[in-house]
Amino acid sequence: MTFRILTLNSISVRGLDRLPRDRYEVASEIGHPDAILVRSADMHQLEIPESVKAVGRAGAGVNNIPVASLSKRGVPVFNAPGANANAVKELVLAGMFLAARNICPAWNYARELEGDDYAIEEAVEKGKKKFVGFELPGRTLGVIGLGAIGVEVANAALDLRMKVLGYDPQITVQRAWQLSSGVEQAVSLDDLFARSDIITVHVPLNEATRGLVNANRIRLMREGSVVLNFSRAPIVDEQAVVAALDAGKLRSYVCDFPNNLLRRHPKAVALPHLGASTDEAEENCAIMVADTLRDFLEHGNIRHSVNFPETVLPRTNGGQRIGIANANVPNMVGQISTCLATANLNIADLLNKSRGELAYTLIDTDAAVPQDVFAKIRRIDGVLSVRLL
Length: 389
Description:
Elements: E1 3-7, H1 13-16, E2 24-27, E3 35-38, E4 54-57, H2 67-72, E5 77-78, H3 85-100, H4 103-111, H5 117-127, E6 140-144, H6 148-159, E7 163-167, H7 173-178, E8 184-185, H8 189-195, E9 198-201, H9 215-220, E10 225-229, H10 238-247, E11 250-255, E12 268-270, H11 279-299, E13 320-327, H12 332-342, E14 347-355, E15 358-365, H13 371-378, E16 383-388
Parallel strand pairs: 1-2, 1-3, 3-4, 4-5, 6-7, 6-9, 7-8, 9-10, 10-11, 11-12
Antiparallel strand pairs: 13-15, 13-16, 14-15
Helix pairs in contact: 3-6
Protein backbone atom coordinates (compact mmCIF):
# COMPACT_ATOMS: atom_id res chain seq x y z
CA MET A 1 0.00 0.00 0.00
CA THR A 2 1.22 3.50 -0.86
CA PHE A 3 0.45 6.42 1.44
CA ARG A 4 -0.08 9.92 0.04
CA ILE A 5 1.26 12.84 2.08
CA LEU A 6 0.31 16.47 1.42
CA THR A 7 2.83 19.09 2.60
CA LEU A 8 1.54 22.59 3.32
CA ASN A 9 5.00 24.05 4.03
CA SER A 10 8.56 23.27 3.09
CA ILE A 11 9.52 20.32 5.32
CA SER A 12 13.15 19.47 6.07
CA VAL A 13 14.54 16.92 3.63
CA ARG A 14 15.95 14.93 6.55
CA GLY A 15 12.42 14.46 7.83
CA LEU A 16 10.97 13.53 4.43
CA ASP A 17 13.78 10.99 3.98
CA ARG A 18 12.17 9.03 6.86
CA LEU A 19 9.25 8.25 4.52
CA PRO A 20 10.44 5.56 2.06
CA ARG A 21 9.69 6.49 -1.53
CA ASP A 22 8.48 2.98 -2.32
CA ARG A 23 5.64 3.40 0.21
CA TYR A 24 5.04 7.16 0.32
CA GLU A 25 4.13 9.81 -2.23
CA VAL A 26 4.94 13.26 -0.84
CA ALA A 27 3.99 16.49 -2.61
CA SER A 28 2.72 20.00 -2.03
CA GLU A 29 -0.16 19.27 -4.40
CA ILE A 30 -1.66 15.80 -4.18
CA GLY A 31 -5.18 14.42 -4.40
CA HIS A 32 -6.84 12.28 -1.72
CA PRO A 33 -4.00 12.55 0.83
CA ASP A 34 -3.78 10.07 3.69
CA ALA A 35 -2.04 12.63 5.89
CA ILE A 36 -0.94 16.26 6.00
CA LEU A 37 2.46 17.57 7.10
CA VAL A 38 2.45 21.22 8.16
CA ARG A 39 4.65 23.78 9.91
CA SER A 40 3.08 27.25 10.15
CA ALA A 41 0.39 27.24 7.45
CA ASP A 42 -3.06 28.16 8.78
CA MET A 43 -5.37 25.17 8.29
CA HIS A 44 -8.48 26.69 9.88
CA GLN A 45 -9.92 27.84 6.56
CA LEU A 46 -8.63 24.84 4.63
CA GLU A 47 -11.08 22.26 3.34
CA ILE A 48 -9.47 19.10 4.69
CA PRO A 49 -10.24 16.07 2.48
CA GLU A 50 -12.18 13.17 3.98
CA SER A 51 -9.29 10.88 3.02
CA VAL A 52 -7.03 12.48 5.66
CA LYS A 53 -6.31 10.08 8.52
CA ALA A 54 -3.76 12.19 10.43
CA VAL A 55 -2.13 15.61 10.59
CA GLY A 56 1.50 16.07 11.61
CA ARG A 57 2.84 19.43 12.82
CA ALA A 58 6.62 19.80 12.47
CA GLY A 59 6.80 21.86 15.65
CA ALA A 60 5.21 22.11 19.07
CA GLY A 61 2.25 24.52 18.93
CA VAL A 62 -0.90 23.51 17.04
CA ASN A 63 -2.86 26.77 17.09
CA ASN A 64 -2.81 26.77 13.26
CA ILE A 65 -4.63 23.41 13.12
CA PRO A 66 -8.39 22.87 13.69
CA VAL A 67 -7.83 20.22 16.33
CA ALA A 68 -11.44 20.17 17.63
CA SER A 69 -13.03 19.50 14.24
CA LEU A 70 -10.43 16.87 13.38
CA SER A 71 -11.06 15.14 16.72
CA LYS A 72 -14.74 14.77 15.81
CA ARG A 73 -13.63 12.97 12.66
CA GLY A 74 -11.33 10.66 14.61
CA VAL A 75 -8.21 12.22 13.10
CA PRO A 76 -5.20 12.42 15.43
CA VAL A 77 -3.04 15.53 15.33
CA PHE A 78 0.63 14.90 16.01
CA ASN A 79 3.32 17.39 17.00
CA ALA A 80 7.02 17.24 17.86
CA PRO A 81 7.34 18.04 21.57
CA GLY A 82 10.90 18.63 22.67
CA ALA A 83 12.41 18.54 19.18
CA ASN A 84 12.98 22.29 19.24
CA ALA A 85 13.59 22.52 23.01
CA ASN A 86 17.30 23.30 22.80
CA ALA A 87 16.77 26.03 20.21
CA VAL A 88 14.13 27.76 22.35
CA LYS A 89 16.19 27.28 25.52
CA GLU A 90 19.16 29.02 23.94
CA LEU A 91 17.00 31.96 22.89
CA VAL A 92 15.49 32.24 26.37
CA LEU A 93 18.97 32.37 27.87
CA ALA A 94 19.91 35.00 25.29
CA GLY A 95 16.80 36.94 26.31
CA MET A 96 17.89 36.91 29.95
CA PHE A 97 21.30 38.31 29.02
CA LEU A 98 19.73 40.96 26.76
CA ALA A 99 17.53 42.13 29.62
CA ALA A 100 20.13 41.87 32.39
CA ARG A 101 22.79 43.91 30.56
CA ASN A 102 20.51 46.30 28.59
CA ILE A 103 22.23 45.11 25.46
CA CYS A 104 19.68 46.25 22.87
CA PRO A 105 19.30 49.86 24.18
CA ALA A 106 23.08 50.06 24.60
CA TRP A 107 23.66 48.81 21.06
CA ASN A 108 21.18 51.33 19.67
CA TYR A 109 22.94 54.08 21.63
CA ALA A 110 26.32 53.10 20.22
CA ARG A 111 25.02 52.92 16.64
CA GLU A 112 23.71 56.48 16.82
CA LEU A 113 26.95 58.05 18.09
CA GLU A 114 28.52 60.56 15.74
CA GLY A 115 31.86 62.38 15.45
CA ASP A 116 35.45 61.23 15.29
CA ASP A 117 36.73 58.34 17.40
CA TYR A 118 37.78 60.69 20.22
CA ALA A 119 34.27 62.20 20.39
CA ILE A 120 32.68 58.76 20.33
CA GLU A 121 34.98 57.55 23.13
CA GLU A 122 34.02 60.54 25.26
CA ALA A 123 30.33 59.97 24.60
CA VAL A 124 30.68 56.30 25.51
CA GLU A 125 32.24 57.11 28.88
CA LYS A 126 29.50 59.61 29.65
CA GLY A 127 26.61 57.51 28.36
CA LYS A 128 27.38 54.01 29.58
CA LYS A 129 26.01 54.76 33.05
CA LYS A 130 22.52 54.65 31.57
CA PHE A 131 22.97 50.97 30.76
CA VAL A 132 24.20 49.54 34.05
CA GLY A 133 22.88 45.98 34.35
CA PHE A 134 22.86 43.10 36.78
CA GLU A 135 24.44 39.65 36.91
CA LEU A 136 22.45 36.42 36.86
CA PRO A 137 24.08 34.35 39.66
CA GLY A 138 21.99 34.61 42.80
CA ARG A 139 18.93 35.96 40.95
CA THR A 140 15.73 33.93 40.99
CA LEU A 141 14.22 32.63 37.76
CA GLY A 142 10.58 31.55 37.84
CA VAL A 143 9.75 28.95 35.18
CA ILE A 144 6.06 28.47 34.42
CA GLY A 145 5.52 25.19 32.60
CA LEU A 146 7.94 22.31 32.98
CA GLY A 147 7.59 20.51 29.70
CA ALA A 148 10.53 19.81 27.40
CA ILE A 149 11.51 23.47 27.03
CA GLY A 150 10.79 24.56 30.59
CA VAL A 151 12.90 21.74 32.03
CA GLU A 152 15.86 22.61 29.80
CA VAL A 153 15.59 26.30 30.73
CA ALA A 154 15.37 25.51 34.45
CA ASN A 155 18.38 23.18 34.38
CA ALA A 156 20.45 25.64 32.33
CA ALA A 157 19.64 28.49 34.74
CA LEU A 158 20.94 26.39 37.62
CA ASP A 159 24.20 25.96 35.69
CA LEU A 160 24.37 29.77 35.59
CA ARG A 161 24.19 29.70 39.42
CA MET A 162 20.71 31.15 39.50
CA LYS A 163 18.02 30.13 41.96
CA VAL A 164 15.15 28.48 40.10
CA LEU A 165 11.48 28.17 41.00
CA GLY A 166 9.26 25.92 38.88
CA TYR A 167 5.50 25.64 38.63
CA ASP A 168 3.61 23.00 36.70
CA PRO A 169 0.79 21.06 38.37
CA GLN A 170 0.62 18.78 35.32
CA ILE A 171 4.29 17.86 35.04
CA THR A 172 4.78 14.39 33.60
CA VAL A 173 6.82 11.66 35.23
CA GLN A 174 9.22 11.77 32.28
CA ARG A 175 9.87 15.51 32.70
CA ALA A 176 10.13 15.19 36.48
CA TRP A 177 12.96 12.68 36.01
CA GLN A 178 14.74 15.15 33.71
CA LEU A 179 14.35 18.13 36.06
CA SER A 180 17.28 18.89 38.35
CA SER A 181 16.64 18.38 42.06
CA GLY A 182 17.94 21.93 42.54
CA VAL A 183 14.73 23.39 41.09
CA GLU A 184 12.39 24.44 43.90
CA GLN A 185 8.67 23.85 43.49
CA ALA A 186 6.52 26.96 43.80
CA VAL A 187 3.28 26.28 45.69
CA SER A 188 1.24 28.49 43.34
CA LEU A 189 1.58 30.94 40.49
CA ASP A 190 1.24 33.85 42.91
CA ASP A 191 4.05 32.38 45.01
CA LEU A 192 6.28 32.12 41.94
CA PHE A 193 5.57 35.70 40.81
CA ALA A 194 6.22 37.10 44.29
CA ARG A 195 9.64 35.41 44.64
CA SER A 196 11.11 35.74 41.14
CA ASP A 197 13.39 38.36 39.60
CA ILE A 198 12.77 36.97 36.12
CA ILE A 199 9.66 35.13 34.89
CA THR A 200 9.65 32.90 31.80
CA VAL A 201 6.53 31.14 30.46
CA HIS A 202 6.56 27.79 28.64
CA VAL A 203 2.93 26.72 28.41
CA PRO A 204 0.56 26.14 25.47
CA LEU A 205 -1.99 28.81 24.63
CA ASN A 206 -5.50 27.88 25.77
CA GLU A 207 -8.28 29.51 27.72
CA ALA A 208 -6.58 28.67 31.02
CA THR A 209 -3.27 30.29 30.02
CA ARG A 210 -4.53 33.31 28.06
CA GLY A 211 -3.50 36.40 30.03
CA LEU A 212 -1.66 34.26 32.59
CA VAL A 213 0.84 37.12 33.08
CA ASN A 214 -1.50 39.98 33.94
CA ALA A 215 -1.65 43.19 35.96
CA ASN A 216 -2.56 41.45 39.22
CA ARG A 217 0.37 39.05 39.02
CA ILE A 218 2.81 41.71 37.85
CA ARG A 219 1.94 43.69 40.99
CA LEU A 220 3.24 40.75 43.03
CA MET A 221 6.65 40.93 41.37
CA ARG A 222 9.74 42.64 42.73
CA GLU A 223 10.65 46.12 41.53
CA GLY A 224 12.79 45.98 38.40
CA SER A 225 11.80 42.44 37.42
CA VAL A 226 11.93 40.95 33.92
CA VAL A 227 9.30 39.01 31.97
CA LEU A 228 10.23 36.66 29.11
CA ASN A 229 7.69 35.22 26.69
CA PHE A 230 8.82 32.72 24.07
CA SER A 231 5.59 30.69 24.08
CA ARG A 232 2.63 32.57 22.57
CA ALA A 233 1.85 36.30 22.62
CA PRO A 234 -1.63 36.17 24.28
CA ILE A 235 -0.24 34.33 27.33
CA VAL A 236 0.98 37.78 28.42
CA ASP A 237 -1.33 40.78 28.83
CA GLU A 238 0.87 43.16 26.86
CA GLN A 239 -1.07 46.28 27.87
CA ALA A 240 -0.40 45.41 31.52
CA VAL A 241 3.27 44.77 30.76
CA VAL A 242 3.73 48.10 28.98
CA ALA A 243 2.02 49.91 31.87
CA ALA A 244 4.44 48.19 34.27
CA LEU A 245 7.43 49.09 32.08
CA ASP A 246 6.35 52.72 31.94
CA ALA A 247 5.86 52.81 35.72
CA GLY A 248 9.27 51.25 36.39
CA LYS A 249 7.77 48.16 38.00
CA LEU A 250 9.28 46.01 35.25
CA ARG A 251 12.80 46.54 34.00
CA SER A 252 12.35 44.75 30.68
CA TYR A 253 10.04 42.60 28.58
CA VAL A 254 11.64 40.23 26.07
CA CYS A 255 9.42 38.27 23.71
CA ASP A 256 9.25 36.62 20.30
CA PHE A 257 6.16 38.48 19.07
CA PRO A 258 6.56 42.01 17.67
CA ASN A 259 3.61 44.38 17.30
CA ASN A 260 3.04 48.12 17.20
CA LEU A 261 2.66 48.30 20.97
CA LEU A 262 6.08 46.77 21.62
CA ARG A 263 8.38 47.20 18.66
CA ARG A 264 9.59 50.71 19.54
CA HIS A 265 9.17 50.61 23.31
CA PRO A 266 12.56 51.44 24.89
CA LYS A 267 12.25 48.72 27.53
CA ALA A 268 10.89 45.96 25.29
CA VAL A 269 12.80 43.61 23.01
CA ALA A 270 10.52 41.94 20.47
CA LEU A 271 12.23 39.36 18.28
CA PRO A 272 10.68 38.08 15.00
CA HIS A 273 9.52 34.66 16.23
CA LEU A 274 12.98 33.09 16.26
CA GLY A 275 12.32 30.46 18.95
CA ALA A 276 12.66 27.37 16.77
CA SER A 277 14.39 29.06 13.84
CA THR A 278 17.53 26.96 13.64
CA ASP A 279 18.49 24.41 11.03
CA GLU A 280 18.84 21.81 13.77
CA ALA A 281 15.40 22.44 15.26
CA GLU A 282 13.65 22.28 11.88
CA GLU A 283 15.40 18.99 11.10
CA ASN A 284 14.63 17.51 14.52
CA CYS A 285 10.95 18.48 14.31
CA ALA A 286 10.59 17.08 10.79
CA ILE A 287 12.28 13.80 11.73
CA MET A 288 10.16 13.32 14.85
CA VAL A 289 6.83 14.05 13.20
CA ALA A 290 7.65 11.95 10.11
CA ASP A 291 8.51 8.96 12.31
CA THR A 292 5.34 9.46 14.35
CA LEU A 293 3.17 9.76 11.25
CA ARG A 294 4.70 6.66 9.68
CA ASP A 295 4.17 4.59 12.85
CA PHE A 296 0.49 5.60 12.86
CA LEU A 297 -0.15 5.01 9.17
CA GLU A 298 1.61 1.65 9.06
CA HIS A 299 0.90 0.27 12.54
CA GLY A 300 -1.88 2.40 14.01
CA ASN A 301 0.26 3.43 16.99
CA ILE A 302 -0.29 6.88 18.48
CA ARG A 303 2.57 8.84 20.02
CA HIS A 304 2.90 12.59 20.57
CA SER A 305 -0.73 13.35 19.76
CA VAL A 306 -2.36 16.50 21.10
CA ASN A 307 -5.89 15.09 20.97
CA PHE A 308 -5.75 11.29 21.27
CA PRO A 309 -4.19 9.13 24.00
CA GLU A 310 -0.76 7.55 23.62
CA THR A 311 -1.51 4.04 22.37
CA VAL A 312 1.37 1.75 21.36
CA LEU A 313 0.81 -1.97 20.84
CA PRO A 314 3.58 -4.30 19.56
CA ARG A 315 2.48 -6.28 16.52
CA THR A 316 1.52 -9.94 16.87
CA ASN A 317 2.35 -12.45 14.14
CA GLY A 318 -0.26 -13.04 11.45
CA GLY A 319 -3.84 -11.84 11.46
CA GLN A 320 -4.81 -8.23 11.03
CA ARG A 321 -4.82 -5.04 13.05
CA ILE A 322 -7.79 -2.71 13.54
CA GLY A 323 -7.39 0.88 14.73
CA ILE A 324 -10.56 2.48 16.10
CA ALA A 325 -11.05 6.08 17.22
CA ASN A 326 -14.21 6.57 19.23
CA ALA A 327 -16.03 8.65 21.79
CA ASN A 328 -15.05 7.72 25.34
CA VAL A 329 -18.34 6.07 26.33
CA PRO A 330 -19.18 2.85 28.23
CA ASN A 331 -19.29 -0.56 26.53
CA MET A 332 -17.49 0.55 23.38
CA VAL A 333 -14.86 -2.21 23.61
CA GLY A 334 -17.62 -4.70 24.42
CA GLN A 335 -19.55 -3.84 21.27
CA ILE A 336 -16.44 -4.07 19.12
CA SER A 337 -15.48 -7.42 20.67
CA THR A 338 -18.99 -8.74 20.06
CA CYS A 339 -18.75 -7.85 16.36
CA LEU A 340 -15.50 -9.81 16.10
CA ALA A 341 -16.75 -12.75 18.14
CA THR A 342 -19.89 -13.05 16.00
CA ALA A 343 -17.62 -13.45 12.98
CA ASN A 344 -15.58 -16.13 14.83
CA LEU A 345 -12.55 -13.84 14.99
CA ASN A 346 -10.25 -14.33 17.96
CA ILE A 347 -8.59 -11.31 19.58
CA ALA A 348 -4.84 -11.96 19.82
CA ASP A 349 -4.10 -8.66 21.58
CA LEU A 350 -5.98 -5.50 22.50
CA LEU A 351 -5.15 -2.08 23.90
CA ASN A 352 -7.71 0.61 24.75
CA LYS A 353 -6.75 4.08 25.97
CA SER A 354 -8.81 7.17 26.69
CA ARG A 355 -8.13 10.89 26.92
CA GLY A 356 -10.95 13.14 27.96
CA GLU A 357 -13.89 12.63 25.62
CA LEU A 358 -11.87 10.56 23.13
CA ALA A 359 -10.62 7.00 23.14
CA TYR A 360 -8.56 4.83 20.84
CA THR A 361 -8.44 1.05 20.51
CA LEU A 362 -5.94 -1.20 18.78
CA ILE A 363 -6.93 -4.83 18.21
CA ASP A 364 -4.89 -7.62 16.65
CA THR A 365 -6.99 -10.50 15.35
CA ASP A 366 -5.76 -13.98 14.46
CA ALA A 367 -7.30 -13.79 10.97
CA ALA A 368 -8.26 -11.22 8.35
CA VAL A 369 -11.29 -9.06 9.15
CA PRO A 370 -14.04 -9.36 6.52
CA GLN A 371 -15.35 -6.13 5.04
CA ASP A 372 -18.85 -6.68 6.43
CA VAL A 373 -17.44 -6.92 9.97
CA PHE A 374 -15.38 -3.78 9.35
CA ALA A 375 -18.54 -1.98 8.17
CA LYS A 376 -20.48 -3.21 11.21
CA ILE A 377 -17.86 -1.79 13.58
CA ARG A 378 -17.92 1.49 11.66
CA ARG A 379 -21.69 1.76 12.25
CA ILE A 380 -21.41 1.47 16.05
CA ASP A 381 -22.73 4.65 17.63
CA GLY A 382 -19.78 6.68 18.87
CA VAL A 383 -17.16 5.23 16.50
CA LEU A 384 -15.41 8.13 14.76
CA SER A 385 -13.07 6.29 12.42
CA VAL A 386 -11.88 2.73 11.73
CA ARG A 387 -8.81 1.51 9.88
CA LEU A 388 -7.70 -1.96 8.82
CA LEU A 389 -3.91 -2.17 8.90
